[in-house]
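INFO batch 0412 | record 1 of 1 | parsing
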Amino acid sequence: MMHRAKLAVAALALAATAGSVTSAAAFGPTAEQKVDGVIVVAGNTCTWTNARTSANPPSALTVDRTTINRPGGNLTCDGGITATLNNNPAFTFDAAGTTARTDLIDITGQQSFVSCRYKATNILWGLDAATGKYVNQAFTATKVSGSFLCPGSVTTAAGGASMLFH
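INFO prediction complete | emitting tokens
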């Protein structure tokens, strides 16, 4: 049961990190179109830095999964878990830049020989004015394939993820 919970946490962690973004107000004319991400779920943390984006917020953008996943990226999770983003998530922002929406997050988490794939859609993120980050609203990712040991769904609590565009 502990193994199963950790694997679900890894999949959920990747889903949430892929979907959170930071304020467009943090951008000046020299923004690099990069993004750093972090999430903590049930005591496990997944992070990455310097993933490429197609634009800067509040413009609609996508995040390049090849710059998150290893070997091109530096995605790491603690707890003996590995995770892989299976799509390039697209983000749209409201006119004021106070909310963002992710179309789809498709992720796979693995621990030992157990692999679980999850998808989450229409994830909503809100701007935290104090930190300049967008943080997630609670969402659930549904299992689409993997071991019978994988939970049918995993949930990320509100505020469990954030990203920093720079």
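INFO post-check: The longest helix spans residues 2-19.
INFO record closed
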